[in-house]
Structure formats: C-alpha cells, structure tokens
Design goal:
The chain is an all-alpha fold. The protein contains 15 helices and two strands. It has helices at 3-19, 29-55, 62-82, 89-108, 110-134, 150-166, 172-187, 192-209, 215-220, 225-245, 256-269, 301-327, 333-352, 360-374, 381-405; strands spanning 141-142, 145-146. The longest helix has 27 residues, at 29-55.
Length: 406
C-alpha cells in the first residue's frame, strides 16, 4: 500500500470515529464502547500526525495559539470547578484533536478532505433513512442519534457538499444528490430544529436561484459575517428574555423556557466560572415523575456556555469567534454566501439547542478557520519570528556601525 492510500485510510478512520451515527449507543453498549475506543485511537493518530507536521516545520499562525488557548481555558475552568475531571472527557480532550486535525487537513488538501467527509455523510444519511423506516427507534432517537443532532449533520453536509464545488472539484451530480438527501433527512425528522433548518435552506436556495431578481437580499447575504453573528446573538438573548416572561411561546418551543429558567437559577450561583464541562444537571419539574437525575443540556448555546464556564468562558468564545469571522476576507461571492447562510442556520439553531456538546460545530468552525488561513497567509508565526530576528539583527548592526563611525 502506497503512502497516499495509507493516509486516506487514516483520514477515513478518524472522521468516521467522530461522525459515526449515535443512535445505536442508546440500545447497544458494545457499539458505544467500540466507537469510544475508535475515538481515542483517532486522537492518538492525530497526535502522531501533529508531531510529524511540527518536525517538518508546519507553519504555526498567531491565531492558532488563541485556538489552542480556547481548549486550555475550558480545561482549567473545569479543573477549578470540579477539583478534577469527571464526565465530559471527549469534549475536553477529543474535540481539540478533531478541531486541529480538521484545520491541518483543510490547509493541506481541502478538496480531498471535503470529499472524504462528503462520502461518509452520504452513507450515514442514506442509512438513517433506511434504518429509521425499517426499524424505528424510540421517541426522539434516530439512527444518527438524538433528533437534535440531525440539523447539525444537515448544516455540515450542506456546507461541505457545496464547498467542494467552490474549491474547484466539479461533481455536480454528487453534490445535488447529497443536498437532496440532506433535505429529506431534515424534513422527515420529528424535531423543530431540523424543520427550521430545512425551511432556512429552502429560503436561501430560492434567494440564490433568483438572485438577479432579489438583488437586495442577495447583497445583504454577502455582507461581512460578523453582522449576522452579532445580530443573531442579540436576537438569541432577546428571544430568551421574552420567552421566559411570556408563556405564549411555550408550546412553540416545547417548554424550553422552563429549562432556561431552571438554568438561570443555577447560573446565578456560579456566574463567573460556571460548573465546568458536564458539571451540573438541570432538572425541570417533569423529571421528578421519572427516575432521571436531570441533564447537562441548556437547549440554548448561550446558556450552555454559562453553564460550562461562566462569564469568562462566554466572553472568550464570543470574542474569538467574532475575530475569526472578521479575519475571513475571501472575495469569492459563492463562498461568502455559503458561509453566511450556514452561519445563520447554526446561529438560529443555537437559540433552541446547544451544538457545543457535539463535535460537528467544531469541525465546521475549523473548516472556516483553515480555509481563511490557507487563502490568506498573512500572520505566519514563523514568519513573524523570522522578521523579528531580522529587525534585531538590523538594530545591532546599526549600533555597531555607529560605534565604528564614532
């Protein structure tokens, strides 16, 4: 087996380990154990790949250090809050590995990496339709996992399937098939988040098709991503406040306002550092009728950030994502439209769900960052250090010349 095929197999193994369907984890403990082992084996492989890349003088960029500090910060917060590490080990340790691996592969060969993810997603989404039809799972569970993950699979699938065309790999039939498959999965899932994502993508598709007639909407969606980011974060907060004070929305949001109210009472007690990853359980009143102790899921990303790391974690994440999006200055209109529409879809999804407890949004954000660096190499850390050394050398040389002339 040549080196190219060997690397392809490793990439497939790693991405399947993280993207694998989670529905069977609810009914087959062995299935969960196998993929847990695969996830940690993937992390070991990624570590070897990263070490090898460093030995070959892989370029480190200044923003890479901020990304690394993101994961270090939540690890330290969890350590302080919980006096150790309990649950949430994958979120603390595996998610950083898949994030940096995605960044590495996107910088190296984005088309190949996109193709690998698309092939995996096509198989998984096809199996989801077949297995859910033949062997229906319990309520709120699908072959992919809990119904709340379907929209995340969908957004990632739309992003990578269209991105590969923009990058120059002309496989129109495959892309169309993947998008149609994704949309069918979204519309057949019994979850408001999946249906809302479906409706958003239909709207964005119509705007794209009729962009000549809908010039104002088209131009609006080509604005800098930070505009949508900030606007929808404000909308998130405003909607939560209104929903928690006006019960008229309760049926529409499936009682999430009661979960948010319960979460607010806990956040008030630990507002600065939160509780750490998987550090607190929310127990709405209806769970007192069951044997459940509660769940660590805020059904809102802002609440989830406060639960996980308090104000410090929330502020850091909001700022680093803002600066990341501000750095994206790629002029390709198709990519900018794809980026903005998928960001909007994720941000709307964040009003009702907490995507940070799963790895999909980490892969998505790593794609954005990796592409931004690949096509905009302006903050190479090695280059900065080299430039700094040259300036020091020039200063020393000028001082020496002055002394000699004096």
């Amino acid at each position: 087996m040549n080196k190219k095929n060997y690397l392809y197999l490793i990439a497939y193994f790693i991405m399947i380990s993280f993207l694998h369907p989670r529905g069977f984890e609810e009914v087959l403990p062995v299935y969960k154990t196998i993929f847990t082992l695969c996830t940690w084996a993937s992390c070991a492989m990624i570590l070897i790949i990263v070490i090898h890349a460093f030995l070959k003088q892989y370029h480190i960029y200044k923003f890479d250090l901020l990304v690394a500090f993101t994961f270090l910060l939540i690890f330290l917060i969890t350590l302080i809050d919980q006096k150790g590490i309990g649950a949430g080990k994958q979120q603390l340790f595996a998610f950083p590995f898949i994030s940096f691996y995605t960044i590495y592969e996107v910088r190296r060969k984005p088309i190949n990496f996109c193709n690998i993810i698309n092939n995996i997603l096509i198989i998984i989404l096809s199996l989801n339709l077949i297995i859910n039809f033949l062997y229906p799972f319990e309520e709120h569970i699908t072959f992919l996992g809990h119904v709340q993950v379907v929209a995340q699979y969908g957004i990632l699938s739309v992003f990578t399937s269209v991105l590969i065309l923009i990058l120059g790999h002309k496989q129109y039939k495959k892309t169309i098939f993947q998008i149609v498959l994704t949309m069918i999965n979204l519309v057949l899932t019994d979850a408001s988040s999946a249906l809302l994502t479906f409706m958003l993508f239909v709207l964005f598709l119509l705007i794209y098709v009729f962009r000549e007639k809908q010039r104002k909407l088209w131009d609006l969606l080509l604005k800098n991503s930070t505009i949508f980011y900030c606007s929808l974060l404000v909308l998130n907060v405003v909607f939560m406040i209104i929903a928690c004070n006006i019960s008229i929305f309760r049926g529409f949001i499936s009682g999430r306002d009661l979960i948010w109210q319960e979460a607010f009472t806990k956040i008030q007690k630990h507002w600065l550092l939160g509780f750490g990853i998987q550090g607190v359980l929310i127990k709405p009143f209806w769970l007192s009728w069951t044997t459940s102790n509660g769940f660590n899921y805020g059904h809102n990303q802002i609440i989830q950030l406060f639960l996980d790391g308090g104000l410090i974690w929330f502020a850091y994440i909001i700022l680093i994502l803002y600066f990341l999006l501000k750095k994206v200055k790629i002029s390709n209109q198709n990519y900018l439209y794809l980026l903005n529409t998928t960001i909007i879809a994720f941000l709307v999804f964040m009003i009702f769900e907490s995507p940070s407890v799963y790895c999909y949004i980490y892969i998505y954000i790593s794609f954005i960052y990796g592409l931004g660096i690949k096509y905009q190499r302006k903050d190479d850390l090695y280059g900065c250090i080299k430039c700094f050394k040259q300036r020091i050398f020039q200063c020393l040389l000028s001082v020496k010349n002055k002394k000699t002339s004096g």
